[in-house]
Amino acid sequence: MTQLRLLQIYTAVSTTVLFVLTLTAFDRSSSSRAEREITAERINIVDSTGRVRLQIAGSFPPRRTQLAGILFVNNDGGEAGGLVYRGTKQNGRVAAGGTLTMDQYNEDQVVALQYNQDGGRKTSGLTIGERPDTMGKELSELYRVLDPMPESPRRDSIARTLIAALPANQRAARRVFVGRDTTKAAILNLSDRTGAPRLQLKVDSLGRASISFLDAGGHVVRTISDSALTR
């Protein structure tokens, strides 16, 4: 009788455990299905130390409220670039854009792949910039003042004032642009360290090709066209 009683207890316990495990597995399976879709305004991806290294968001206030996408964060907590986009259509007019950027350490972007559209005006291309190796007090003050401010005419006015006060060695310069401009031309611009274009290769919207040389003031000093080459 004792062995029979033990067998009955063992059977009851085994059945109970099996039943609990089955329910747990079912619940875990349901939970996994539910977590395939997450609704959130922002998701912070952290590393093993808990530091944020990636931000996925539907907007990035205070300034970039129209942009959604991903911001990259370096090991020291500074922004390092991102992939963002925007796009609206009002009264038949499109205002849209998308940008993939890579920032210089503790600075702004130096590589950008961009598309921008404002109505019928469209540009798209790759930009390579140059920024100072070290940040001076004037540039530090510019970032300190402008970064917390939302987009507004007042911010634009303050930005112009602060940029005008920057020494030459603290200014950013666009050194290379290759892409399509608002005139529907395919162009390659090569600029000097001040950002002034000095050499331009172009194929315009009609298919005419040219090479232009410019002085430091942006004036064309010589042009070689495809018609001259075929003479």
Task: Describe this entry's structure for a reader.
It is a single chain. By secondary structure, the protein is α+β, with helices and mostly antiparallel strands. Among the domains are: 1-36; 38-104, no CATH class; 132-171, no CATH class. It is 26% helix and 40% strand. It has four helices and twelve strands; from the N terminus they run αβββββββααβββββα. The chain has helices at 2-34, 137-146, 153-164, 226-229; strands at residues 42-46, 52-57, 68-73, 79-90, 93-103, 109-118, 121-130, 173-180, 186-191, 197-203, 209-214, 220-225. It has a twelve-stranded antiparallel beta sheet. Helix 2 packs antiparallel against helix 3 (153-164). It is globular. The model has no long low-confidence stretch (mean pLDDT 88).
